[in-house]
Amino acid sequence: MRGYVIKRLAQALGVLWAAYTVSFLVLDYLPGDPVSAMAGAGADSGQVDPAQIAELRHQYGFDKPVLVQYAEHLGKAVRGDFGDSVSTGRPVTSTLADALPQTLQLTGAALLLAVVLGGGLAVLATYTTRRWLRQLLLSLPPLGVSVPTFWVGLVLVELFSFRARWFPAFGNDGLRGLVLPAVTLAIPTGALVAQVLAKSLLTALDQAYVETARAKGADRLRIHLRHALRNAALPALTIVGLLAGQLIAGSVVVETVFSRDGLGRVTAAAVTAQDIPLVQGVVVFGALIFVMANLLVDLVYPLLDPRIVVASARKARAV
Predict the structure, then answer these.
(1) Which residues pair with 91 in a beta bridge?
(2) Can you give the pTM of this predicted structure?
(3) What CA–CA distances, in Å, run from 207 to 88, 199, 212, 235, 306?
């Protein structure tokens, strides 16, 4: 088990390094000059003192060779220092820390709803013996995946804010203000969870061990929840780990639609202002969330199926 954990930790660190490196290179080669934008040069750079631009470029290290910038910034990033925001002058870590609680609240609520609703839908669809009900329930996840998130948000605002007046349409107004954004973000995520889990459950219910459990006298509910669901949950857990990082990206759209403060709005503002340090901080943080979620999933795997650790150990000995 220790070797399995060490291997997963090494892979996680490799993903973080790759995310930082790729984001640094992509942002460096993007057209535009963030320093000129910060100095207010706009389209007519002649109105701004070139000495001021040169001073700002030196202050943020943009006048150094790319490899030197990369080495210096990577060394600072390892210590948790991503520099200062070009647009606001504040440290990137402080900006992210201020926006983080609202986004974590939103994505955490959305992920919980997605797992509960998507898992419940999959279990109900595969448990029912009524063919028409099963077909109806299994047709809902593809619909949820295909509908655009911003459209779902606008519909929910129209129905439950402007007409029913049950929830506020905009802002970070406590629990009531969290409901509609969380549901908006949870619908496509829960639909994917339901698709994967339902397919896995249908496959698991056709396996030989299920027939053995039936022969021993186990009832349908016990077979469904104790035997089939445990094995079918592995692919669904993988999807949940992948979607945890995507929820951060989805929060950009949802926080914009509902005018919520958080990482989504910070990202949108940073991209508009060509704020390279802040954008890179957001990218690395999103990769960190993705890595942590998948690492957690990898550590839960052996609890559901101990054969994974055994297989990993055999592979390591063979190498």
Answers:
(1) 84
(2) 0.70
(3) 59, 13, 9, 16, 19
